[in-house]
């Protein structure tokens, strides 16, 4: 039955194929998934990633979230936790095996995850995901662009402004220069975004730290409130941002598993039970272990 659930589109088709009751099917399948999960238990790896994704949205209520702990080395999900606040994470962390093994934790710019990782993994270096840092500046560019062109996603200038300037054709760079010529605030924000992109091409932790300090100094001189506000965030995460250059770890794999989680949800037409969802997701993202 477990083979059928992994290869059929949904459990209703398995039920029809095996001519069994819904209750029996669910009982057998999830008992087998739990047995398989127990056979794959192992100590925490040296490099992990943390992120959250939504599980369901209840009518007239808030969205339910789950947190995933990803094993970068074995390319699999290590654990799925119900909730995303620190209390939920700490309750689940009690069952973690040998948290002192963890040397690197990749995460987005979440203060909750940062605090949890510092308390739970004492030997770990925290690494802020580069794409989340770049996206902060991209969002700022987009916000100022909307004030000029309106919220038109099909506007070609939107795509040009958000792309890495180094990857643009010469004529595209010229279009951007002409567009920004009389737009002081947008030009300043775009220049900061490009500096951040260049900084991530820097080699070496010391050079990267110097480049980040220059960016923070420029942001500190800005008269734009949004830039000053973003500077506070970057300043609070400066050490984690610089740690990226010591190994160049990112949360890319974690984001990939989040996408796979959405496929698991769609295939089941949603989940009412977190316990069942956890078992299905751990089985679908079991990696090489």
TrEMBL record:
InterPro entries: Transpos_ISL3, Transposase_DDE. Pfam families: DDE_Tnp_ISL3. Residues 48-280 form the Transposase IS204/IS1001/IS1096/IS1165 DDE domain. Signal peptide: none annotated. NCBIfam families: transpos_ISL3. This is Transposase. It comes from Pseudobacteriovorax antillogorgiicola. The lineage of its organism: Bacteria, Pseudomonadati, Bdellovibrionota, Oligoflexia, Oligoflexales.
